[in-house]
Design brief:
By secondary structure, the protein is mainly α. The chain has helices spanning about 5-15, 20-45. Helix 1 runs antiparallel to helix 2 (about 20-45). The protein is elongated. It starts with a helix and ends in a 7-residue tail after the last helix.
């Protein structure tokens, strides 16, 4: 099945079979860290932060 991770986190946190806020927040923190790492890699390889002068 195709499912994006943030909708999976929503179902874990607010699903009908019992809310698991701890696991949902742990997955959210991992997604946040992964997004930060990918953004840092992209900035590194595209030289966006490099000075023009």
């Amino acid at each position: 099945a195709t499912d994006i991770l943030i909708s999976m986190v929503y179902r874990i946190a607010f699903g009908g079979s019992g809310a698991d806020f701890g696991f949902a927040s742990a997955v959210s923190v991992c997604l946040f860290i992964l997004t930060g790492v990918l953004a840092a890699i992209q900035f590194r390889f595209t030289n966006v932060l490099e000075d023009v002068n």
